[in-house]
């Protein structure tokens, strides 16, 4: 089909706008990377935009040498893995059970779940509930409250309802029970949707700083994003220069004058962002496929 000059101009304009959007997204990331790899005193003079002018690893040595940050990463990784696996299991089980139209009180349960998407009791009642359950100041405050997501459940339910009933009926005629149908039919067919929901859930756990800031007072239980939030509001370097390894790093190759709070902040941001960015390319094909399936089924 012949493309007219107007259509080519429109495509060129779209490509130009997309390029500007990519640059606007990529540039802040490159700027933070350059600052984190530059000595703080040199970066403070300005002029560092896309690559470091005075290259150094000291900022990352300071960040990774902090015991609180290392422990915070372990907490974040643990909650992300456990929260994602647990959340997908609960979401899949709830959606699969509610997909049976003969389930007693099914409509009432769906209505009740829908109400929770529209209204909530607020932060104070939620905190009181967590306190009464003994979840505050524990690792499980990151896992249990987020196991069930009404939105994810409805998306998963819609997907399961789109699976041909003939497949499930034929399995039932062969003597398969609900558990076997779930394991051998529903789960294999739902991999793209589970990957998409799993990515959303994992990113939510990885980026969550709110729970650690309001529901946990023990510094050994805070996730890395909460520590980053505390660091971004700090006024000096005392929060990250106190460990013995940091003191050794300073004694080996750098002085305190070469380090600024901004450079350490940028290094912490990069370390907190890189893991989730590294995982995304491996799940991208499942993520896109799951979104496309959800849009078609919906």
UniProtKB/TrEMBL annotation:
Gene3D superfamilies: MetI-like. Keywords: Cell membrane, Membrane, Transmembrane, Transmembrane helix, Transport. The chain crosses the membrane at residues 12-34, 72-97, 109-128, 140-160, 181-203, 262-283. GO terms for cellular component: plasma membrane. It is a multi-pass membrane protein. One of its GO terms (biological process) is transmembrane transport. This is Carbohydrate ABC transporter permease. It comes from Paenibacillus sedimenti. The lineage of its organism: Bacteria, Bacillati, Bacillota, Bacilli, Bacillales.
């Amino acid at each position: 089909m012949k493309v007219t000059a107007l259509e080519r101009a429109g495509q060129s304009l779209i490509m130009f706008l997309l390029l500007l959007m990519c640059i606007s997204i990529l540039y802040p990331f490159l700027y933070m990377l350059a600052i984190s790899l530059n000595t703080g005193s040199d970066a403070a003079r300005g002029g560092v935009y896309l690559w470091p002018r005075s290259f150094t690893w000291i900022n990352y040595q300071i960040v990774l040498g902090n015991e609180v940050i290392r422990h915070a990463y372990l907490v974040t990784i643990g909650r992300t893995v456990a929260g994602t696996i647990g959340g997908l299991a609960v979401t899949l089980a709830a959606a699969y059970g509610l997909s049976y139209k003969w389930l007693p009180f099914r409509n009432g349960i769906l209505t009740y779940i829908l109400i929770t998407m529209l209204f909530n009791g607020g932060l104070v009642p939620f905190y009181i509930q967590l306190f009464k359950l003994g979840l505050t100041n524990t690792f499980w405050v990151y896992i249990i409250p987020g196991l069930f997501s009404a939105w994810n459940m409805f998306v998963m339910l819609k997907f399961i309802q789109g699976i041909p009933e003939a497949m499930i009926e034929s399995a039932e005629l062969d003597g398969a029970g609900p558990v076997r149908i779930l394991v051998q039919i529903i789960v294999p067919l739902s991999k793209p949707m589970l990957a998409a929901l799993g990515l959303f859930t994992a990113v939510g756990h990885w980026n969550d700083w709110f729970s650690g800031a309001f529901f946990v007072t023990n510094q050994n239980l805070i996730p890395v994003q909460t520590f980053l939030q505390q660091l971004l509001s700090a006024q000096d370097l005392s929060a990250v220069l106190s460990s013995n390894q940091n003191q050794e790093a300073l004694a080996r190759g750098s002085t305190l004058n070469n380090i600024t709070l901004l450079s350490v902040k940028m290094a912490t941001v990069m370390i907190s962002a890189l893991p989730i960015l590294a995982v995304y390319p491996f799940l991208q094909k499942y993520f896109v496929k799951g979104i496309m399936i959800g849009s078609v089924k919906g």
